[in-house]
Amino acid sequence: MSDTKARTAEQIEADIAATRLRLASTVDELVDRANPKNVALRQVEQAKSQVFDEQGQLRTQKIVAVAGAVVGVVGVLLVIRRLVGRR
């Protein structure tokens, strides 16, 4: 700190107490964020937001796209398996 005035012991103690409170609050927030139950809940909410829009309606375009990709991958794997099986 570049204060030109000297601080009293009470001011320094008050600054330390305020810093301690901010640090405790930050630690509590980090513990809450890192709690496995909370992490799982956030992941579930994120997954739901991929399938449902803000009004709770299914996002059919995304579902169709994912289903199409899955069908495509399965098709490619079946073709590869058939080609490898001929040897």
TrEMBL record:
What is the protein name for this chain?
Answer: DUF3618 domain-containing protein
Q: Which UniProt keywords apply?
A: Membrane, Transmembrane, Transmembrane helix
> What residues form the membrane-spanning segments?
63-84
Do you know which InterPro entries this protein is assigned to?
A: DUF3618
